[in-house]
Design a protein that fits this description.
CATH topology of the largest domain: Rossmann fold
Helix content: 40-55%
Strand order of the largest sheet: 1-13-12-11-2-9-10
Number of helices: 16
Number of strands: 13
Radius of gyration: 29 Å
Shape: elongated
Strand content: 15-25%
Number of domains: 3
CATH superfamily of the largest domain: HAD superfamily/HAD-like
Largest sheet: 7 strands, mixed
């Protein structure tokens, strides 16, 4: 761009000299061309919008972590949600405490405290001060569970397959579950209840109105996933989805042309968050999920998903407008300067005015409420 400006200025100076305009006038015209062709407005078209949009989202409790996150979010047309800790609050409570012995709960919670998974944390809270066992060789398998050794005996905590539970699954309890096995003892089942975010249904409905396809992918059992999907009106849902299954589904959607926004919080969501076109994670998520996500939002509501989409879409429109304003300025000012109708002073005022116009247009992002709109 700089070379082009210098080229046209040099060409204009040579032309005026050949036409007999004199050295002084030729230099005046050349300086005017150099000032007019300064690409300040074009250079401000994108970064000013990004700064304003990022600031607006930050005031709403949404941290933008990726430099091109706004652009990619504006392109999204499909939203994929995790269940536990995303559509639900993740504040789980042990539902069958009375049916579990204190010793079993203490041993299971000793292993569970090594994990940030919401179910593990709920188990630790239920055990309270009774967590006292030292666990060695702890290993966590995303989408499956934990394993380790206590007093030389193997311990496992996780889903049915991880523990090796056989037989038909009892779907009478519509909440989440964890299974625990201590050595060769019979497996113990822990049942949990959770609460759907208060605005989850409203958010899902609004996304549908905006033209988004909404999908639920969860590693939980069929019963809880189906119940939440029906409660929120999500027709496309999948249970028992391990990390590799989530990635496979995202790739399948991407191959069909979908631009996916993934919203998740768990350890097993991190690969999917990274694989999606753009991703969001609540502040209560595991560290690895927050690192993988492009956005992190605070609070108990799901509305920040709508806010981020609305701001991203309006930011994209303002970027297009800024480019239009900058190009219109260049289309008018450059020919006038080349023809000798613009003095250096007028050129400086025009160039500054174009930059101010682009900046003021970018600030329009703060003038109207874009919550849930675009």
């Amino acid at each position: 761009m700089r070379r082009a400006c210098i080229f046209w200025a040099g060409l204009r100076c040579s032309t005026w000299l050949l036409l007999g305009a004199g050295v002084w006038n030729s230099l005046n015209y050349t300086v005017a061309v150099l000032i007019v062709t300064c690409p300040c407005a074009l250079g401000l078209a994108v970064p000013v919008v990004q700064v304003v949009a990022t600031g607006r989202l930050l005031r709403r409790g949404i941290l933008v972590k990726s430099a091109d996150g706004l652009e990619r979010l504006a392109e999204a047309d499909t939203v994929v949600f995790d269940k536990t800790g995303t559509l639900t609050l993740g504040r789980l409570e042990l539902a069958n405490r009375a049916g579990v012995r204190d010793a079993q709960l203490a041993v299971a919670a000793s292993l569970a405290r090594s994990s940030r998974h919401p179910l593990s944390q709920a188990l630790v809270r239920a055990a309270g001060l009774s967590v006292a066992h030292t666990v060695e060789d702890v290993r966590e398998q995303p989408g499956m569970g934990l394993e380790g050794r206590i007093d030389g005996r193997s311990v496992r905590l996780g889903n049915r397959d991880w523990i090796g539970v056989t037989g038909e699954s009892d779907e009478s309890h519509m909440g989440s579950e964890l299974w625990f096995r201590h050595g060769e003892e019979a497996p113990v089942r822990f049942l949990f209840t959770d609460e759907v975010r208060t605005d989850a249904r409203e958010t899902v409905n609004r996304l549908k109105e905006m033209g988004f396809a909404v999908i639920l992918l969860s590693g939980d059992r069929e019963g809880p996933v189906t119940a939440v999907a029906h409660e929120l009106g999500i027709a496309d849902y999948q249970w028992g989805a391990r990390p590799d299954a989530k990635i496979a589904r995202l790739k399948e959607l991407g191959a069909s042309g979908a631009c996916i926004l993934m919203v998740g919080d768990g350890l097993n969501d991190a690969p999917a968050l990274r694989a999606a076109h753009v991703s969001m994670s609540p502040a209560s998520a595991t560290d690895i999920s927050q690192i993988a996500a492009d956005y992190v939002f605070q609070g108990k509501a799901l509305a920040p998903v709508l806010d981020a989409i609305a701001v991203a879409r309006k930011a994209r429109r303002l970027v297009y407008e800024n480019f239009g304003l900058a190009l219109a300025y260049n289309a008018v000012a450059i020919p006038l300067a080349m023809a000798g109708y613009v003095t250096p002073l007028i050129a400086a005022v025009a160039m500054s005015s174009s930059s101010i116009t682009v900046t003021l247009n970018s600030l329009r992002l703060n003038l109207r409420d874009t919550k849930g709109g675009y």
